[in-house]
Amino acid sequence: MINLGSYLIISFALFICGILVMVARKNIIAILLGIELILNASALNFVAYTKFMNNNLDGHIMSLFIIVTAAAEAAVGLGIVIRFFQLRESIHIDDAATLQN
Amino acid sequence: MSTLNLDVYMPVVILIVLATLVAGGSLLVGGLIRPHNPTKLKETAYECGEEPIGTAWANFNVRFYVIALIFIIFDVESSLMFPVAAVFKRFNEIGLGGTLLMSVLTFVLVLVAGLVYCWKKGDLDWVKSFHATKVNIAAKEK
Amino acid sequence: MFSNTLFMLSAALTLGGAFAVVYSQNLMHACIYLLASLFGVAGLYACIGADFLAATQLVVYAGGVVILMLFAIMLTGGTGNKINRYGLEKVAAMGNKKTYFTAGFAAVVTSLIILKIIASVLRAQPSKELAANQVTVEKLGTLLATDHILAFEISSVMLLGALVGAAIISRPRKEKHD
Amino acid sequence: MNSTIFSYFSQSKELSTIISGLSKSLGFDATSLVAFIVFAIACLVVVGALATIGGLGTYAERKISADLQARQGPNRVGPYGILQFLADGVKMILKEDIIPANADRFTFILAPFLCMIGVFATLAVVPFSSGFTLTDLNVGIFYLVGMASLVGVGVFLGGYSSNSKWSMLGGMRGASQIISYEIPATITIISIVLLAGGLSMGTLIGGQGGMPQEWYMFHNPFAFIGFFVYFISALAETNRAPFDLPEAESELVSGYHTEYSGMRFGLFALAEYIEVFVVCGVATALFLGGYKVPFELGTGAILVEKLGLDIMLAKNIGQVLELGSFFTKTFALYYVVIWVRWTLPRLRVDQLMTLCWKYLTPIAIFNLLGCAVWMYAFNGKSIYSLIFETASTVAGHH
Hints:
The complex is a heterotetramer. By secondary structure, chain B is mainly alpha-helical. In chain B, 64% of the residues lie in helices and 0% in strands. In chain B, helix 2 (63-93) runs antiparallel to helix 3 (97-120). Chain D has one domain. Chain D is mainly α. At the A-C interface, helix 1, helix 2 and helix 3 of A face helix 1, helix 2, helix 3, helix 4 and helix 5 of C.
């Protein structure tokens, strides 16, 4: 039951869910939720390969830094969202397209 | 899979299930015997007798976010510090304590710089414009 | 025996939470489902002996990121369905048919690529006995203090940058923007 | 690698015979099954005991407050009113359960469950005694910090879901207070981890001794300050007075659980009282020597040596002594918590944040660095042993 294949499938499903959330939603915070899912999928992959392939702990370090980066990313990303909301009263992603034209 | 001994996590799972059971069970048992006759008035939010106007899910002040932001940075910092702190004693015993102490000092002081920055810029103040109003009042009194 | 139960529970929580995030039309509920999913991932970490990572996942995600997201939702007007002054839907923007179609297309393409990559792993199931779970905290600490000391120190600089940057961005300003 | 209550019991011969007998009759290795049964029983015992302690906590709170204000307190139900908490429980179960019409039902129902799960899951690593720790995880204290942070989410959701302004304000305040005070508490815990060299409760307590001078609280001046930093932060984290702003009766009606009635409110209250016990237990384990009994009585070796008792019996007696030691210290702290509540006035919200970010967090960081420097400079010796060594060398010179 606990083997590399099942872990890969789980992280694959997490990744696809993240992609779906990220593309389908137009709400910036919901998009950030999707990004968290994707980051978790990759961290899970690192840990699974560490356990089932070589059993040193470098993958754990990598996952640790993924978690750190995800937290920093969430902090800055949500800060931008809040600033944007203060300016535009909106967190719709299409409102943030002022650089387009 | 006999090599993976996960029995140590058994109490965690049992306790989580037990918490759900205790909470759910007491609500369920109560549901069988307690009265249930809701009225429209009973189901409004309690606001000291006034009729509630609008929803409570309004915008909140951004200072809550700034606090949460500083919190998450220090939370992450502490979770990185935990394993290093756990090996500090062992490193000290084999004579590497000084090196590790230097790296811990660097790590912490860089983050203290962040705290000092937020302090100087007034992000840690709950009442943001308190100083300004005091100055204004003093100026008006003159 | 119990390992399999723990694994099944965690996997069910992870996948259920992730699917619910996709399915949910309410931002606040989606955030809670994300919490469930991350909780499940912590269980999955615990299953393969990464106990410190599991606890980190709990501390950073359950206590930190999810609370931050809930705060951000409250700071951007909660979940009430309102129209802003530009006439755009403010919060309800949880997608429509067109975006779902695009998302489904993106998901299919990505899943084909990923399946191609992991197919070889899935086909050749290594049946070798797994190494026993080890004490990870001390080893992680040693690695962080020796081999990965640079990453450890630089992560503090990165956190400093995130703190300062996000504080500058989200600091309330007095002047009116129109 | 991890010692659990099961590994303690499997030292006795009876359990191993049961396991081997069961394995023979069932046809597979029954160790896991027996472990599950042992854990389930132990968890039930712990939850039952802690629920009673939580209930008695409400009684103790009223009785002590009555004592401090020269009143009688509850005295009708049972002798000295000690069954008051049962009466309260029955009342809560019988109360009508009202969910506001505008509430978000899903989160409204979920919030007390999150609080309960967060608090109950922390019980898994609370070290009641060296044998009777449900499970001594390698990441014990860190796990506890993580699980306890679920309570913050529960409090926030409780406030959010009610769709009442009082609740929402209380929930926002509660969540920001809980997360803010987590920082000084966690950094203080790191400084103790630094002294002990491990995250598991066994390691943390194993570095201390039974006598007060061997406790980490008196290990060095920084740890001494650290105890007070941790205790204040723990008070704030459990929303206890003088930090009870999220449920300030005079300002916010009753904060995040304004709209909760009956048993749902009872679950919040039960979680809060158990959490107070847990943080007192953690303070005991980290700073006050935990379950250690003076003169190594806890291991039972001295009983075997002097009285010639059976090894397992002596160990059990030692466990009982350790349980007594742990509960005595924890209840002493619990009394202080209640005492503080009826002594100090409530803080203002800006004072609360100032206290956390401008006083406690810098002091906690200073303590952390101080502990690290102390460990390096004096090679991990405590101040008592330093004084003792200096005195003995001075005495040796003369």
